[in-house]
TrEMBL record:
PANTHER family: PROTEIN-GLUTAMINE GAMMA-GLUTAMYLTRANSFERASE (PTHR42736:SF1). Pfam families: DUF4129 (PF13559), TgpA_N (PF11992), Transglut_core (PF01841). InterPro entries: Bact_TGase-like, Papain-like_cys_pep_sf, TgpA-like_C, TgpA_N, Transglutaminase-like. The chain crosses the membrane at residues 25-43, 50-70, 106-127, 134-154, 160-181, 202-222. This is Transglutaminase-like domain-containing protein. Gene3D superfamilies: 3.10.620.30. SUPFAM superfamilies: Cysteine proteinases. Residues 575-584 have a biased composition (Low complexity). It comes from the Bacteria. Residues 553-588 are annotated as: Disordered. Keywords: Membrane, Transmembrane, Transmembrane helix. Residues 461-541 form the Transglutaminase-like domain.
Length: 791
């Protein structure tokens, strides 16, 4: 049993590939799961109490985690101490930062691997406790489900076929072991092992697996991924907020239109709504730096921490965030004042990002006054670049990461060789990224394993030359810094599209209203030019809008706005090599069913057949239970085949339950037979049927209550038993309404009762445990009361 549980958990953990990058994490997982399962198996083999087995497994989990991850801080290399706990919390904080700041696949750092090993070790403890001392092996599968839920809700391709099959095989093995070594003692079969239980577990598990694979084909939305998951089911509901650089790709791949924002602006050019700024490019992933110590409260007057030119363009923008929920406020750049907000809000002088202190952006309606310099190509050509030494700019925006991949440096150097001013360098980088060599794709990063952000991801993107806005913006920002241009990444929303409404503002012409949602989530680079401030660029092909001052970097057909977020390559491209070519994705709602070229009628037919199978499943399961009970077996020491009387008696009781006579646990077999006879009107009673009832009752009484010498009597043959039950069924059906007969055939109450007992078993166990705990506390109080009186 320990081996089955370990195999099931390790098999389920295979689905985490893609959540974590590579396979380096698998070795500590196997060691942790194996040690915990082995420790519990040894304690159980030594006849230790169940509680001590669980405690021993938990101790083994602590020891192996200390030895694997916290050896230097542990006593003797495996015993936890004060320093061990401190370092563990440090690693857990690192794991939390990884979960918050990175997107799958994440680098398997020590903190995240420690957390995964801890969780999987606890899953082993849970499954062992449910399967062995509590005798609920089927319920123990909830532990495997908890493991599979993580990749199913994180990875675009879901848990994957390998992890699902491995977990299913382990679960089937666990069920087989549970039945093989713990047969039903009520059958008194005289053997220590149930006959044929392992084979039945394999057949049942295989059927469940087949249904699990076929069912998604008939459900709308389950149409992509190795193990079809469609757009993935989110048990926490839709995400209406923009989680910077993490869920941006998922928002683009899920064109649901969640988090709709409307705005009306007086600007003559498209408005980008900025939420946060990414300016530190160290590590495996990049996240906003809130700089809590330097933030300032109040949005009535916002002053940037750098010099703006005298000639500024002022615009008014009215924004309604609706259900969009984020700690950061979407505003046009550069905001000078924001009025009408509810709650307390602060802003960063370096990035001008606005964050709520006690509120979120949900249901906010506010007005933004923004100022921006009048930017032209000529002004950018003449502009210089401030350095941190001048006090004009913070060094955070000019620092080049020490671990920049060589491909990034070489590409930046090749593109800017011979160019004398920063604007020409910026145009060269933008022109390269928007050229026919690159394609816009939401799926290529997922399939290639370089989704998200970070320097290692950036190297893969420049090799594959296919990705979405996060990759293009990151590439331009890092290459700009390599060439000496201060840069950062803005995360927010592209301009969106008009709603057709106009908003009247006193003393002004009506403002055109626009709408953006999750499909317009976007990232773009901003480069700093002395005297002009931060200037946005648009290196992502088929996305957003290229500014007029950078329009000469646009390739033919590459400046359009792609509101449907499809993988549309730049027109007139030269063919890419087969290793990096990306096929365009079909438009949402078009093409053949499930995107596989199979006609939609096939899936309609499959859905109809599946629905028919589901309706017929109670009848089929009831027939299967009846056939299993009436199967002839060869009892030990007997020459002829027979049907165990206990199984024939179970079938008789279920047959009576299906037709309205519910047996009571307190009645004896003879009382049950008398009650069954009394429930049938005398005019409908049948001699053959009643003789069959009394014969089955007599067989069961001899089997259950007879002397040991007679207790092993084999009972009647299968044919005779089946004839007796058929006679009883014919008697019960005689005179019944069609509704009763329909219910007994297609929705048998005995089967529904069996399901209810199975589902409610954990709750009954919990209730009995609570009653016993209450009785124990009551007895303890009674025992202590005389001592208190004596005191």
């Amino acid at each position: 049993m320990a081996g089955a549980i370990a195999a099931a958990v390790i098999g389920a953990s295979l689905s985490l590939n893609g959540v974590l990058r590579g396979w380096a994490w698998l070795s500590p997982v196997i060691i942790t799961v194996g040690v915990v399962a082995l420790a519990m198996a040894v304690l159980r083999a030594l006849r230790a109490p169940a509680a001590l087995v669980t405690l021993g497994g938990f101790a083994a989990l602590v020891f192996i985690l200390c030895n694997t991850f916290l050896r230097k801080e542990s006593i003797a290399g495996f015993i936890p101490g004060p320093d061990t706990l401190k370092q563990a919390f440090v690693l857990f904080d690192r794991a939390g930062e990884t979960v918050y700041a990175e997107t799958a696949p994440v680098a398997p750092n020590t903190g995240i691997v420690l957390l995964i090993c801890l969780c999987l070790g606890l899953v082993v403890l849970l499954m062992d406790t449910l399967a062995v001392p509590l005798a609920l092996p089927a319920t123990s599968g909830l532990g495997l489900l908890a493991v599979l839920v993580v990749p199913a809700t994180i990875k675009p391709q879901g848990a994957g076929l390998a992890g699902f099959l491995a977990a299913s095989a382990g679960f089937i093995l666990l069920l087989g072991c549970a039945q093989w070594f713990a047969p039903d003692a009520r059958l008194q079969s005289g053997t220590g092992r149930g006959q044929g239980q392992l084979r039945r577990s394999v057949v049942l598990g295989g059927a469940a697996l087949a249904v699990g694979l076929v069912l998604p084909l008939a459900v709308p939305g389950f149409d992509q991924g190795t193990f079809p998951v469609g757009s993935r089911l989110n048990p926490w509901g839709p995400s209406n907020g923009l989680n910077p650089m993490i869920t941006l790709g998922n928002s683009l791949r899920t064109p649901t239109g969640d988090g709709r924002i409307t705005y009306a602006t007086s600007s003559s050019t498209p408005v980008y709504l900025r939420s946060v700024t990414i300016d530190r490019f160290e590590g495996e992933s990049w996240a906003p730096d809130d700089r809590a110590s330097s933030r300032r409260l109040g949005t009535g007057q916002i002053v940037p921490g750098y010099t703006l030119p005298e000639e500024l363009v002022r615009d008014l923008t009215i924004i309604d965030t609706g259900q969009f929920t984020s700690p950061y406020l979407p505003v046009p750049y550069t905001p000078a004042a924001v009025n009408g907000l509810n709650g307390r809000w602060s802003w960063d002088p370096l990035t001008l990002s606005i964050r709520g202190e006690d509120r979120t952006s949900r249901n906010q309606h506010y007005t933004v006054v923004s100022v921006s310099p009048r930017i032209t190509a000529a002004a950018l050509t003449q502009a210089g670049t401030a350095s941190p030494a001048d006090g004009e700019l913070s060094e955070e925006f000019t620092q080049v990461p020490g671990n920049v991949p060589e491909i990034v440096r070489n590409t930046a150097g090749t593109l800017t060789t011979g160019l004398r001013n920063n604007f020409a360098k910026a145009l060269a980088i933008q022109r390269y990224l928007r050229s026919a060599e690159f394609t816009y794709s939401l799926q290529a990063p997922v399939q290639g394993g370089y989704d998200g952000n970070g320097l290692s991801v950036l190297a893969d993107f420049l090799q594959q030359k296919s990705g979405y806005c996060v990759h293009f913006a990151s590439a331009m920002a890092v290459m700009a810094r390599v060439t000496g241009i201060p840069s950062r990444i803005a995360v927010g929303y592209a301009p969106g599209h008009p709603t057709g409404n106009n908003i009247a503002v006193g003393g002004r012409d009506p403002l055109t209203e626009f709408s953006v949602d999750a499909r317009d989530a976007h990232a773009w680079p901003e480069l700093y030019f002395e005297g002009l401030g931060w200037v946005p660029f648009e290196p992502t092909p088929s996305r957003g809008s290229v500014p007029d001052y950078a329009a000469d970097a646009v390739t033919p057909g590459g400046s359009g706005s792609n509101l449907d977020e499809d993988d549309i390559p730049v027109p007139n491209q030269t063919p890419l090599p087969s290793s990096s070519a990306v096929a365009p994705a079909p438009l949402p709602g078009t093409g053949t069913g499930a995107g596989t070229g199979i006609p939609q009628a096939v899936f309609v037919l499959a859905g109809a057949l599946l629905a028919a199978a589901l309706l017929a499943s109670p009848r089929l399961l009831r027939a299967g239970i009846r056939a299993r009970r009436l199967r002839e077996v060869r009892p030990p020491g007997q020459a002829g085949p027979a049907v165990p009387p206990a199984l024939a008696w179970d079938e008789l009781q279920d047959l009576a339950r299906d037709y309205g006579h519910v047996p009571r646990p307190s009645e004896t077999p003879r009382h049950f037979a008398a009650g069954l006879q009394g429930s049938i009107p005398s005019a409908l009673a049948d001699d053959a049927g009643m003789r069959a009832v009394h014969a089955l009752t007599a067989d069961f009484e001899r089997h259950r209550y007879g002397r040991p010498a007679d207790g092993g009597a084999p009972g009647a043959g299968a044919r005779l038993t089946a004839d007796r039950l058929s006679a009883v069924r014919a008697m019960l059906r005689r005179g019944r309404s069609w509704l009763v007969r329909l219910r007994a055939d297609w929705f048998p109450p005995s089967l529904l009762s069996r399901w209810f007992r199975t589902i409610s078993a954990p709750f009954r166990w919990a209730g009995r445990g609570a009653v016993r705990a209450g009785a124990f506390i009551g007895n303890l109080r009674k025992a202590v009361r005389p001592l208190r009186r004596g005191n």
